């Protein structure tokens, strides 16, 4: 169990949580704050949206233990909030709900739109709401309700203070910190905010900062060590084997620039970044140190990949990887280590297959322009379900 201190709806609370407990379970099961709903539990539907440090966050994929020191607000804590009061009234009058299951998450997102994008038109409202799914209303009433409150704000009938806005930060994805007084924790710059600053300032890689995930993986390529090692020296060829990756400039010495496009559920991130590559011919090992920014979505990543090649029997090479990364922004919420580890394993398998294909002279498969991690997540979940059913004898 882990001790955390959270400020929940304005009240500082010290709590003991399981390392794997997500915020939604903590709020609903331990604190009886049941306005936060759970539906997909995969970060896709938005029903569980709450505010962490003033930013909308999906509480079903945010570990409670990683939010030590954060301020959490649920619908229960926004009873007297002027924007929320206007939205509740507008949702009711514009028929913005039927069963009401999506409504708490929808209201939290709607409040964020009213506060953050005061000039939003219908198209922008629909875009901003696209991460919140409703299966009953057809969205027309919801969009009308948000528009109505925005109109009130533009007409000066709705006072909105900016006091709550903070720089885009971790949204619950911060690594657990050593115990500190709650107010100190909130005031400290989070490592993820540092990552953001670092990326903007042109700092490459972790540069001494602590990663928020680390993964060790290995895979086997059915080709001899020397061939695989030579192939790893051709950066353009390596990039062409990575789903979603492309080089944007011809590599210069040890430096490469490229793009990586990733789609997870409703979130698409197009990272542009730079990396420095080192190679040790004597040890068949190397490092890739890089930083990427998704300008549109605000996600940022900084990290290091260390790889080492080893003969794995005749004509086979084992590639061992250690990936250490610091993620910030929307994608950071997908940092549930189990899922990320399995995703990395699937990506590594795909990569190994492409490398084998290239080295054996097979025609190059068309480059996948976006890594659709959503479909990978579903296959990971199906595999897990199969395993669980087998375990209990139902398969
Ligand atoms: S329950 Fe969290 S996004 Fe669906
Ligand atoms: S009102 Fe039923 S899911 Fe939105």
Structural commentary:
With 395 residues, the protein is an alpha+beta fold. The chain folds into 2 domains: 1-188, Ubiquitin-like (UB roll) (Roll); 193-391, Alpha-D-Glucose-1,6-Bisphosphate, Chain A, domain 4. Helix content is 32%, strand content 24%. It has helices spanning 23-30, 82-93, 103-116, 122-128, 140-154, 182-187, 191-200, 225-232, 235-240, 337-359, 373-391; strands at residues 2-8, 11-17, 49-52, 55-58, 71-73, 213-221, 245-247, 255-264, 267-280, 285-293, 300-311, 317-328, 371-372. Strands 6, 7, 8, 9, 10, 11, 12 and 13 form an 8-stranded mixed sheet that branches. A hairpin with a 4-residue loop joins strand 9 (267-280) and strand 10 (285-293). Helix 2 (82-93) packs across helix 3 (103-116), helix 3 runs parallel beside helix 5 (140-154) and helix 10 (337-359) crosses helix 11. It starts with a strand and ends with a helix. The model is unreliable at 172-200 (pLDDT under 50). One FE2/S2 (inorganic) cluster binds at residues 97-103, 134-137.
Name some characteristics of this structure.
2 domains; eight-stranded mixed sheet; alpha+beta; elongated; 32% helix; Ubiquitin-like (UB roll); 395 residues; binds FE2/S2 (inorganic) cluster; Alpha-D-Glucose-1,6-Bisphosphate, Chain A, domain 4
